[in-house]
Design a protein that fits this description.
The protein is an alpha/beta fold. It has ten helices and 23 strands. Helix 7 crosses helix 8 and helix 8 crosses helix 10. The longest helix is centred in the middle third of the chain and has 18 residues.
């Protein structure tokens, strides 16, 4: 027997032009009758949908009465991580730590969690990728065991919140935000809706309980943080983890920081026994050898505000191919090609007749223009077969006209070179006008790349 119930069609909204009364079933920006812009609006639409609350739990107070001590940073016990964060973690702050899989994010955060727990704080480490036993084995290997460090293997958001309510931690670590999902949201873990819901809920809990939170985030193939871009806007701090898989060096830099600078870089050494901060990492980027060899030049690069002494190596081998090879590792390929073109045009070097191979020592990546001069001198040294004498550094930007331009942080670069025992520095002209030069280092000013190469050649034997 057929049912007597009939389905009532859903009421459809009606939109009307305030100028001529023309109606339509959907909103348009321009009236189809009188062609007036912005005159179409919904019939019966409520102008204000959200009404004021009848009770305010935390009323506004004068700014002078706000306790600023609650926003003071507290050290995590890991000095290099504190440097990037601006002194440490702030209560209620949410930090997003992003990086490629296997680069050392979990190892670093487990070490941070143990340091905070050993200092007397309560820490909850929630792993959505590993079991608690697996995390415990890694913690034992890197020496990160602590009585006040609690482990949980959860992928459900509601259960995670229950764990937070039960333990009341001072620090929450979620590894990773893409593995947690909510049953109230459609879709699998890691999709846009789930990541947004998980992040918003965890952030709300962190602010409500003054709980510092570290969220691990995966990155896509192009290096950006996976998930919606709004995730980076919701959190207080975004920290990027960088490094090559074949190198032990790891760099941590702040992309966004509401509590400190974004131009600081932390250096770490990742090994089988854990991850260790490097307060003085320059030694990793220099080759240890007894004899001088052609094709090398030392430069001082700035990673954030930190000067790092780095060695550039160049090998040019004569070729009969019409298109010589240009291979780089750690050196920006486009800038290397530009420097080669400048040397061929303005220094009259036969770079078009040779394959060029450029690399850095220690896996560091040179991206700033100040490394151009060291690259040019290393190339010229390889072509001439004459080594640049030890104790010499060079830095400066090379222009397309062959000129050597000034670079930022000249004083810091010279002070770092002098501290490490370098005796000569080939720098852009005008260095003396920027302030007092450090003692113990001879500053050789140059205006163009040809003169810089000539000076470096005269310093060498012969």
């Amino acid at each position: 027997m057929a049912s007597s119930k009939t389905k009532t069609p859903a009421a459809r909204a009606t939109y009307r032009c305030s100028e001529c009364g023309w109606t339509t079933a959907k909103w348009v920006g321009r009236c189809g009758e009188c062609q007036t812009w912005g005159s179409v609006s919904e019939v019966g639409a409520v102008a204000i949908r959200t009404q004021p609350a009848t009770y305010v739990e935390r009323p506004a107070v004068p700014i002078g009465d706000v306790d600023g001590r609650r926003a003071e940073a507290r050290s995590t016990g890991v000095g290099e991580f504190d440097r990037v964060l601006g002194g440490g973690l702030v209560a209620g702050a949410v930090v997003l730590v992003a990086g490629e899989p296997g680069i050392g994010k979990s190892t670093l955060l487990l070490d941070v969690a143990a340091q905070v727990a050993q200092a007397g704080g309560t820490v909850l480490y929630v792993s959505g990728e590993e079991s608690a036993a697996q995390v415990r084995v890694r913690a034992e290997r890197i020496g990160a065991l602590a009585d006040r460090l609690y482990l949980a293997s959860e992928t459900d958001l509601a259960t995670l919140l229950a764990q937070v309510e039960a333990i009341g931690p001072d620090l929450l670590v979620v590894d990773s935000v893409q593995t947690i999902s909510s049953s109230e949201v459609d879709g699998s873990a890691g999709n846009v809706s789930q990541v947004r819901e998980v992040a918003a809920t965890v952030i709300a809990a962190a602010k409500r309980q003054d709980m510092a939170t570290l969220l691990v985030g995966h990155v896509t193939k192009d290096g950006s943080i996976a998930g919606p871009r709004v995730l980076e806007h919701l959190v207080d701090v975004v920290v990027q983890f960088e490094g090559e898989r074949h190198s032990r060096l790891r760099l941590v830099r702040a992309v966004k920081n509401r509590y400190g600078p974004t131009d600081e870089v932390g250096c770490f050494d990742l090994s089988d026994v854990g991850i260790v901060g490097l307060a003085d990492p320059s030694g990793l980027f220099l080759t240890s050898r007894d004899t001088e060899v052609p094709g090398t030049c030392v430069t001082v690069t700035l990673e954030g505000r930190r000067p790092l002494v780095t060695e550039v190596q160049a090998l040019l081998d004569k070729t009969s191919a019409s298109n010589p090879r240009r291979t780089t590792n750690g050196v920006d390929h486009n800038r290397a090609a530009m420097v080669l073109a400048v040397l061929g045009k303005h220094a009259r070097l036969p770079v078009q007749e040779a394959d060029a191979y450029l690399a850095t020592v220690g896996g560091v990546r040179l991206s700033e223009p100040a490394a151009d001069l060291a690259v040019a001198i290393a190339i010229a040294s390889s072509l001439a077969g004459t080594p640049v004498p030890s104790g010499t550094v060079a830095f400066g930007e090379v222009g397309l006209a062959g000129e050597v331009r000034a670079c930022t942080g000249l004083q810091r670069r010279l002070m770092e070179a002098a501290r490490l025992g370098f005796r000569r520095a080939i720098v852009p002209a005008g260095a003396a006008a920027q302030g007092r030069l450090p003692d113990g280092i001879q500053v050789l000013e140059v205006t163009d790349v040809a003169r810089a190469i000539a000076i470096a050649a005269r310093l060498g034997p012969g």
